[in-house]
Amino acid sequence: MEVVSVLGKQEWKRVLKAGDRVFIGSNAASPVAVVQQLLAHIDLFHDIELTHILTLGETPWAEAKYKNHLRLNSLFLGRGPREAVQHGYADYTPSFLSEVPALFEEGLLPLDVAIIQVTPPDVNGFCSMGVSVDVVSSAVRHAKHVIVQINAFMPRTFGESFIHIDQIDYAVEINTPIVELPVQGTDEVSQRIGQYVAMLVNDGSCLQLGAGRIPNAILSSLSNHNDLGLHSEMVSDGVIELLQNGNINNRYKKIRRGRSVTSFCVGTKRIYDYVDENPHFEFLPSEYVNNPAIIGKNDQVVAINSAIEVDLTGQVVSDSVGHRFYSGIGGQVDFIRGANLSRGGRPIIALPSTTKSGTVSRIVPFIAEGSGVVTTRGDVHYVVTEYGIASLRGKSIRERALELIQVAHPDFRDWLLEKVREHFWVPTYQHSHTSTLQEFGSVEMEKITLNCPGHFFIRPLHPSDERHLQEFFYSHTQETKLLRYRYNPEQMSREKAHSLVNVDQSKDPALCIIRKEGVFEQIEAVGRYYYIEATNMGEVAFVVRENMRGHGLARTLTKRLLQIAAQRKLTRMVAYVRPENTPMLKTLEKVNFTRIPSDDPMEVCMGYTFPSED
Question: Domain limits at 36?
Answer without folding.
Answer: 2-173
